[in-house]
Amino acid sequence: MSVKINEKVTWRDITPGGTIYDAGNSSEFKTGDWRVLKPVFVEEKCKQCLLCAPVCPDSAVPVENKVRGEFDYDHCKGCGICMKVCPFDAIQMVSE
Amino acid sequence: MPIRDRLSGNEAISVAMRQINPDVVAAFPITPSTEIPQYFSKYVADGVVDTEFVPVESEHSAMSACIGAQGAGARSMTATSSCGLALMWEMLYIASSSRLPITLACVNRALSGPININADHGDSMGARDSGWIQIYSEDNQEAYDNFIQAVRIGEDERVMLPVMVCQDGFITSHGVENMDLLEDKEVKEFVGEYTPKHYLLNPQEPIAMGPYATDKYYMEHKRQQVEGMKEAKEVVLKVAKEFEKISGRKYGFFEEYMLEDAEVALVAINSTAGTIKATIDEMRNEGKKVGLLKIRLFRPFPGEEISKALKDVSVVGIMDRSETFSTQGGPLFFETRSALYDNPNRPKVVNYIYGLGGRDISTKDIRKVYEELYEIKMGKEVEETCTYLGVRE
């Protein structure tokens, strides 16, 4: 059963109890809009060690062809784990 | 063929549980409902049922285990009382909002403090807005009958809500009565198999339950949940009709006892209804036209139907076995009076708070109440709408 859950869904169509029947639907929701601190990627310092990608609780560090891309700010909560794990100071936390 | 037996209210519930043979029962003992899981655990130990019995370390865990099990696709049950129900408080909301038709036997008992173990409706009334269907039982027979029907009511696809079946602590839970039991086979056929549409252990459909709902979604969920409650009214009557076919016993939203031509009437729930009926019988012999409306279904509240049933009564006394501290009366009073408000010939309504913490209520007390209702009918000024019955002044 596939129900489109978005901000237009009515009470008649929303799933009972909010049960989610499809995997991977987080991409449809913008959940990073209440962040206080924001990680900024300093590309010239990055050695592409990719330590930041697996530690991100929200999969907000996209990696393609073994190269990390810009943060996915729609989902990043600004927790700062990526900044702490980065050995090269390639991530800085700034006020949102 | 009905089986004649004499059982306490707790035994009656455990027999119903045995006959239903649920997939999971998770429970923590608390007076006066302790015996329900106690008797039932013997059935489990003896292999009479194949239920997974989960002896948990608190009522919060009991409800959590039921939620997990029911979400996984298992028919789950528990029993509790008083502070046990209060400890389940947080999880009661999770169960109802996740639309999990868990069945709970609530043996009504006062909430602390001071500590008290006797009958009082403070526990279930405290949970009345948690989204559970609530059914109240006058005696052991009703507790048994209601518990079996509760399974069907909650699991109906239109409803999908948990159901609480209440009875009075010690008065019915430990009082032994003669009663009629259904055959095991009849109960089994009546409740059928639990076949949820969506459940966690279905390998064909991996799902996520209990997600976070922001303000953009929460209200739609609550509105949908209310719809389940609205549908429940029809389902309660449908299930009662089917139950009548196998048992011969009739159930509705409420029971009207000598109400049709009553001049004054009382509204009550649970065991006190029996005391009131006995008083009515006495007073009817004396030519007094007194009646009773005993509410069986409290959630959803059948307001329109109650208003209709009381339309020809001139004075109504509403009996509350719990306090709200609003200083305006008890929960049964609020809801009944509110239901009567739009009635063009609405009766005079007064509230009696009685029997808190198990204080005895006798036919003598009820007679006094009826006499007062008559005085009000004759024009006596009502000084205080809400009064306390049997409290030492």
Describe, in short, the structure shown.
The complex is a heterodimer of chains A (96) and B (393). Chain A has 96 residues and is mainly beta.
* Multimerization status: heterodimer
Helix proportion range of chain B:
40-55%
Annotated CATH topology of the largest domain in chain B: Rossmann fold
Query: What percent strand of chain B?
Result: 15-25%
Task: Count the domains of chain B.
Answer: 2
- Provide the low-confidence segments of chain A as ranges: none
Straight-line N-to-C gap of chain B: 53 Å
**Termini of chain A, distance in Å?**
38 Å
Count of individual beta strands of chain B: 15
CATH architect. name of the largest domain in chain B:
3-Layer(aba) Sandwich
Helix/strand-derived class of chain B? alpha/beta
Please provide a written account of the structure.
- Chain B: Belongs to the pyruvate:ferredoxin/flavodoxin oxidoreductase family.
- Chain B: This is Pyruvate ferredoxin oxidoreductase.
- Chain B: Pfam families: PFOR_II, POR_N.
- Chain B: Keywords: Oxidoreductase, Pyruvate.
- Chain B: Residues 262-366 form the Pyruvate:ferredoxin oxidoreductase core domain.
- The complex is a heterodimer of chains A (96) and B (393).
- Chain A has helices at 52-55, 81-85, and strands at 37-41, 63-64, 67-68, 91-95.
- Chain A is mainly beta.
- Chain A has a domain at 30-95: Alpha-Beta Plaits (2-Layer Sandwich).
- Chain A has a two-stranded antiparallel sheet. A two-stranded antiparallel ribbon of chain A has the order 2-3.
- The longest helix of chain A has 5 residues, at 81-85.
- The radius of gyration of chain A is 16 Å and the shape is elongated.
- Chain A starts with 36 loop residues before the first strand and ends with a strand.
- The model of chain A has no long low-confidence stretch (mean pLDDT 92).
- The mean pLDDT of chain B is 97.
- Chain B has 393 residues and is an alpha/beta fold.
- The longest helix of chain B is centred in the middle third of the chain and has 33 residues, at 215-247.
- Chain B starts with a strand and ends in a 5-residue tail after the last strand.
- Chain B has a seven-stranded mixed β-sheet with strand order 3-2-4-5-7-6-12, with helices on both faces. In chain B, strands 9-11-10-13-14-15 form a six-stranded mixed β-sheet, with helices on both faces. In chain B, strands 1-8 form a two-stranded antiparallel ribbon.
- In chain B, helix 1 packs across helix 7 (184-191).
- The relative contact order of chain B is 0.11.
- Chain B has two domains: 3-247, Rossmann fold (3-Layer(aba) Sandwich), CATH 3.40.50.970; 254-388, 3-Layer(aba) Sandwich (Rossmann fold).
- Classes of the chains: A mainly beta (96), B alpha/beta (393).
- Chain A binds chain B through residues 1, 5, 7, 9-12, 14, 16-21, 23, and chain B through 97-100, 160, 198, 205-211, 213, 216-217, 219-221, 223-224, 227.
